[in-house]
């Protein structure tokens, strides 16, 4: 059986949904599980909606109307008036109406997951209805009953035993009869609340299903020809990798190559399932295959750019050395606030860490750290990682930039620049 994952870019409009149907049809005769993300930039819009609700902003209804209009305009290009999918989508949006009717409470992450998840619940209903209209037999599965997580909202931790049991109990029989369509990015708690697996987590969903079902392969259908040595949004003159080892793919995603979610590779590597990254605009193109025994060929360094970085400089209030005890306290605060450290350095009097910026988490982090330490920070920075770098490539990437922090080892160079 095959697992396909279609991300937001592939279903950003009606043409995308039609194309998705054609891609799946071209694999007729295979058992296929299709994981779908929210359409286009819907998750970002739902994040704005969540913030507007929590802060009780005036533009709350306007943001919600725009999200609904965007989906209804896609629906009206695909389905005749009166098709049952209009009601299905409307009923799904009603869940947001219910959520925002009440006064917001304190648990931002919980509210976030209940609202933001609607993007995938809507997109899968639309894709499933499109398959059926096109004569492709399919069933839409509510992933929240299959991917079981703890209640770490916004970063649900998968309970693999429970998840495997649920998936193996039902999904193979369903795949005998039809295509199965399900939501990426979402999970469910034992109390039946919705969780999300972390931004861009739909790739991970595909790899969870593939691992549990012993899939032949996973294909993620993207708006790029495959995995390139750098993000084409920032660099011209990129090259595509025909194949990559699991190890290299894990390293690339760990450093922030956003083409694949970092948690995706491990479940596939563990079960030796290949991951194909292919362009949805040209399904017969080879793309990139990540597989056991792949030979990496780096004719150019791999460049990974992470924007919106903050450099935090933490020191004691009384000029004492930064000791292991201080570091342990600092890391405790990072862990509590789910802050990932991308790069760090210590000196006698200070500890410096480069972290991702997230408004709500950063405010809390800063407040907690300031209870025990002096904290200074620089924001709006960029972290660039070069894998398989050369001295000249490092010079070129930093030319004309202010380098605030730099670290190199045999394989990898990292610079924080302004
Ligand atoms: N090394 C890379 N190779 C290819 N694409 C990359 C790379 N690094 C970042 N990207 C970005 O990843 C995007 C595709 O991933 P993503 O946006 O997550 O797709 P989707 O959400 O549709 O699954 C591309 O549009 C590209 O800008
Ligand atoms: N919709 C979610 C999950 C996801 O994986 O999306 P995409 O496949 O479009 O990156 C997000 O934007 O975070």
TrEMBL record:
The keyword DNA-binding does not apply. It catalyses: L-aspartate + ATP = 4-phospho-L-aspartate + ADP. Its EC number is 2.7.2.4. GO terms for molecular function: aspartate kinase activity; ATP binding. Keywords: Amino-acid biosynthesis, ATP-binding, Kinase, Nucleotide-binding, Transferase. GO terms for biological process: homoserine biosynthetic process; lysine biosynthetic process via diaminopimelate; threonine biosynthetic process. Pathway: Amino-acid biosynthesis; L-methionine biosynthesis via de novo pathway; L-homoserine from L-aspartate: step 1/3; Amino-acid biosynthesis; L-threonine biosynthesis; L-threonine from L-aspartate: step 1/5; Amino-acid biosynthesis; L-lysine biosynthesis via DAP pathway; (S)-tetrahydrodipicolinate from L-aspartate: step 1/4. It is an enzyme of class 2 (transferase). PANTHER family: ASPARTATE KINASE, ASPARTOKINASE. Belongs to the aspartokinase family. This is Aspartokinase. The lineage of its organism: Bacteria, Pseudomonadati, Bacteroidota, Sphingobacteriia, Sphingobacteriales.
């Amino acid at each position: 059986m095959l697992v396909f994952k279609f991300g937001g870019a592939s279903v950003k409009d009606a043409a995308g949904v039609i194309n998705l149907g054609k891609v799946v049809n071209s694999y007729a005769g295979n058992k296929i599980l299709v994981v779908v993300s929210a359409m286009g930039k819907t998750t970002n819009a739902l994040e704005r909606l969540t913030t507007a609700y929590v802060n009780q902003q005036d533009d709350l209804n306007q943001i919600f109307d725009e999200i609904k209009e965007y989906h209804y305009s896609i629906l009206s290009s695909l389905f005749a008036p009166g098709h049952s999918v209009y009601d299905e989508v409307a009923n799904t949006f009603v869940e947001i109406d219910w959520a925002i009717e009440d006064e917001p409470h304190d648990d931002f992450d919980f509210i976030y997951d209940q609202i933001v998840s609607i993007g995938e619940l809507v997109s899968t209903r639309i894709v499933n209805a499109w398959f059926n209209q096109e004569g492709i037999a399919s069933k839409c599965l509510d992933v929240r009953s299959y991917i079981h997580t703890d209640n770490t909202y916004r970063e649900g931790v998968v309970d693999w035993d429970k998840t495997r049991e649920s998936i193996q109990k039902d999904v193979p029989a369903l795949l005998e009869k039809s295509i199965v369509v399900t939501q990426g990015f979402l999970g469910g708690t034992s109390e039946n609340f919705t969780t999300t697996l972390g931004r861009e987590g739909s790739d991970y969903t595909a790899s969870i299903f593939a691992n549990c079902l012993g899939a032949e392969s996973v294909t993620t259908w993207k708006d790029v020809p495959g995995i390139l040595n750098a993000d084409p949004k920032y660099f011209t003159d990129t090259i595509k990798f025909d194949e990559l080892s699991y190890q290299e793919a894990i390293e690339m995603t760990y450093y922030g190559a956003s083409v694949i979610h970092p948690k995706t590779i491990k479940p596939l590597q563990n079960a030796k399932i290949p991951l194909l990254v292919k362009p949805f605009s040209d399904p017969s193109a080879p793309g990139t295959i990540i597989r056991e025994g792949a030979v990496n060929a780096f004719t150019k360094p791999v460049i990974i750019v992470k924007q919106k970085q903050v450099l935090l400089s933490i020191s004691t209030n009384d000029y004492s050395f930064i000791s292991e005890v201080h570091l342990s306290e600092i890391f405790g605060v990072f862990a509590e606030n789910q802050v990932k450290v991308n790069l760090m350095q210590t000196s006698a009097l200070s500890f410096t860490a480069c972290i991702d910026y997230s408004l709500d988490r950063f405010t809390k982090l800063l407040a907690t750290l300031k209870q025990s330490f002096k904290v200074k920070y620089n924001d709006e920075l960029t972290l660039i990682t070069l894998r398989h770098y050369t001295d000249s490539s490092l010079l070129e990437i930093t030319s004309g930039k202010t380098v605030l922090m730099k670290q190199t080892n045999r394989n990898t160079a990292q610079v924080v620049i302004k």
